[in-house]
Write a structure and sequence with these properties.
Blueprint lengths: L8 H9 L3 E6 L6 H11 L10 H8 L11 E6 L2 H6 L1 H20 L6 E5 L6
Helix pairs in contact: 3-5
């Protein structure tokens, strides 16, 4: 199953028009923890120190200092349902890491927020 980008397009457009940094985590075809962590590193544009484990992902998601200055950041996660169904434990860990990052940035003083959007295909 892949995402029909139309339902996501308005959110991406609005974020870009507001000057936000827009990042995309596409999980299409991802079937392993290592693969999801590599995709996360690429999506976050993580620096070379990114270690490719859950702790490194949590650290990177609470840093983001390498991203350009912006009033906010949007991470759109697409094609995630097959991964969530196939690897429910790893999906739960990934969601927890992302939720904690959102909370971290919400509470960070004078720092732009991070919003994570779990995109779903448009219903027929």
């Amino acid at each position: 199953m892949s995402l029909d980008p139309r339902p996501l397009a308005p959110a991406l457009t609005a974020a870009r028009e507001a000057g936000w940094t827009v990042l995309r985590l596409d999980l299409d075809g991802v079937r392993s923890k290592d693969a999801v962590l590599r995709r996360c590193g690429r999506a976050l544009e993580a620096p070379d120190w990114f270690g490719g484990n859950w702790d490194a992902l949590a650290d990177a998601a609470r840093d983001l200092s390498w991203l350009p200055p912006a009033p906010g950041r949007l991470l759109a996660v697409t094609a995630w349902r097959p991964y969530a169904a196939e690897r429910p434990h790893d999906w739960d860990v990934l969601r927890e890491v992302l939720e904690e990052a959102v909370d971290f940035w919400r509470d960070a003083e004078d720092e732009p927020p991070l919003t994570v959007l779990l995109a779903a295909p448009e219903r027929p």
